[in-house]
Amino acid sequence: MSNEQAKRLEPTTTKTRSSTQSSxxxxxxxSSQKSGTRSQEQQLWDAICNDDxxxxxxxxxxxxxxxxxxxxTVITIDKNQGRDTCSTTYLLQACKVCRSSEIACALIRAGAxxxxxxxxxxxxxxxxxxxxxxxxxxxxxxxxAVIMRSEDLxxxxxxxxxxVNSANEAGERPLxxxxxxxxxxxxxxxxxxxxxxxxxxxxDAVFAALVENGADLNASDKQGFTVLHVAAERGCLEExxxxxxxxxxxNVQTPVTGLTPLSLAKHANNVAVVNYLIQHAEGKAxxxxxxxxxxxx
Length: 297
What we know:
The chain is mainly alpha-helical. 49% of the residues lie in helices and 8% in strands. The strands form 3 sheets. The chain has a two-stranded antiparallel sheet. The protein has a two-stranded antiparallel sheet with strand order 3-6.
């Protein structure tokens, strides 16, 4: 090969190598994407991440054989661990990054499973675009909407078929998150402090939306903890009061160890919650006794 022929080939080689590297860093994996052709899956992902409702609508109307319930996988490049992959659903991504609920609703109407759980991804300042958000963990779209305190999205998801009692992999329901945001079971070391006063109104609205649509106040996760267990253990007095007034069972026990909301509150030294639960139990006992007397008479 002559020097002149080598020079003509050099720009083409450099361009191809640069294009492949750029595609890889964006988190693409297929051969068609590496060659510069974006698949309809990646186009939909990008449109969702850019909150582009018009583009999402166009893709949903024109795409062929697009499976909205197949997890979308991206390649992550960790500065310490190197190359890896992570995945999520289009609907979870829409619930997380979009400013409105229209894109989530469009995906559901086009066939996305409103109750499918998965891991949420987040952007990072280094390497690839997305990595798993380990703080949020495995959630359903409705749980994610509750975490984000989005009353509108909560109500839209319920209207479109979201089950208010559907659980994630840990058996946690939307109610387990409603008062404490990012949840950890009472047995976990990481705990969330009670919600700030400024968030009270929206939290109450989210709680009301769930209860109005049939949320089970006494539903437990896989360890047997109900939302009242969680609120009592964390010292959330106002949340405990709201749950009890809504008819949550204060005597509910975990199946293996028999822990009650009161025993958890005592162990955590949450005096105000302990006093309230005791007083309520005593008041209920007196009320039941009075009813028995009236019935006998």
